[in-house]
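Work Package 3 (structural annotation) set out to generate three-dimensional models for the target panel prioritized at the project kickoff. During this period the team completed the workflow that converts sequence records into discrete structure tokens, so that structures can be stored uniformly alongside our sequence database. As a representative example, we reproduce one entry of 198 residues exactly as it appears in the project archive.
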Amino acid sequence: MRRRVGRPLARAPRSVIGYHGCSTEAAQRILSAQRFIRSENSYDWLGVGVYFWEYGPFRAAEWAKTRFNEDAAVLQATIRLGRCLNLLDPRHYGGLLRAYELAVDEFARRDVPLLKNRRGAHFLDRLIIESYCEDEAIVAGEGYSTVRGCYPEGAPVFPGSRILRETHVQIAVRINSCISQLRQISLEQIDTGNQGGI
């Protein structure tokens, strides 16, 4: 019997549409330069990168309005995932656990408390993601272009539900060249649910 050779497994889509919430001033600056500045906050849960909601214009608008009120803006972009650390697939969980164990040992050796996550501030997650990305870049000879994960957040949609109203898939883009076809989306278009062009 001939052995069937299949196609390589698809671990993540090659490209996705992402939405970035920001202020109007930041949107104009980004569009003018056609370039983002990566977030490098110590609490960013997917590590350093430009953060997008994957296929989430409503979530991006909600986030931007909460922070910038009338000055809110949403940018849409096509994101080429490239070499993606896809946390929706458990393939990387063993490596992340090893990175965590190494961090525990290192912090114990230095006699300092290990970083902890707090509500809205993911200090430990960032530490482990960055450590894992650095180690993988050495092993593979190239770094990750993007990090992609699902974040359960918010209150249940209805009593007893495991569906949470702010759950989203988020992408941290580590390499600016993965971002293309950048444009601003009107908040009115998002509010009315007009999906044409979104």
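Helices lie at 24-33, 57-68, 93-109, 123-140, 187-191.
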